[in-house]
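A quick aside before the break. I want you to see a complete sequence-to-structure record at least once, exactly as it would be stored in a machine-readable document. Don't worry about memorizing anything.
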Amino acid sequence: MSNGDKARDQARAAFEKLGGDRSKLWLVGAGVVLLLIGFRSCVTVEPGHVAVRVNNITGEVETITQPGLIMRLPFGIHSVHIVDASPQTFHMRGTANKNPLEVRELTVRASDGSNFEFNDTTILFKVVPSSGARVIFDAGTEHAYRMWMSPYARSILRDEFGRESTISVSNPTTFGQATERARKRINDLLTKHGLEVTSIVTPRPRFSEDYENLIEARNQADNEMSVIGSNLQRAATDRSRRLAEVDRDQNKIMQEKRASLEAQLATAVSTQTQTRREVDTFKIEKVATGQAALSASRSTAIELKGQLDAQFVSRKAEIDAFRLQPVERVMERLGQRLEGVTIDIQPWTNDSAPSRVQVEKLGGIQ
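That is the input. The structure line, written in tokens, reads:
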């Protein structure tokens, strides 16, 4: 028995089980129809997807980003379009275009006229969930929006990397800056269509064999320069450390010497103060002694002056009295003074007929 015969027999058996009542059969059929309509009126939105519901009567468009079941009125009242909003990967690799997400590799002409290639350029992008309706209107249903990636990515990446020279593009720092500039420019264009590029991953550019050898030589030179710079930095650190040690030792010596000199200075100042005190004491004693001696000497001088004045007056009185005495008395006094004195007188003349007698002392008075 074929499967068709079995199905007819099962339907006939079910009909007979219902007692041949056609009204119940219609009820079952209506329930089945309603169940089918209910299933067709519900659309499931999976995580990472966006639903765009269009009311074909009013023209209202609604973007639903929450996953779950949504209602869709039958008979063409509502149209629901599901858009994949999960992160997607766009590759530029190989020598031919395979599909919208995998196209031929990127070739760039640098600013200095040389050419270089990227073996596998990877761009991560996604649909902005809130812009699902814009994606449908601009590109179409399902995955039609992927058509925007190839022309925008290729032209902008060529433009941005074409501004660099072969030397600068081989520098990872400059290379990353060009990639970021390209990502911003692509987003400025794609966000208008509801797409967003989250990341651009580009491998090291591939040059000709000679240029690759030159790049390798330059990298080796850069590594050597890095080693030299590290050695210089380490030498500078050692120098700074040694200078710090020398400064520390010298500061210690200076502190010890300063402490010793300050102690000597304090001792010298103390000795100086003591010496000044002793000198001041000695000076005070000597000045007091000198003042006392001066006072005594002045008193003695005054007394001596009085005595001398008295003697002077007495002598003057005697002289005055002697002056008034006669010549005989003077000669007598002179004779008393010359008592015991021998005077030798020798006559001497200059001519034979002297007119006067000259007395010359030949020897001392005996």
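Two observations worth writing down. Residues 1-40 form one domain. Residues 131 and 194 are 5 Å apart (CA to CA). We'll return to this after the break.
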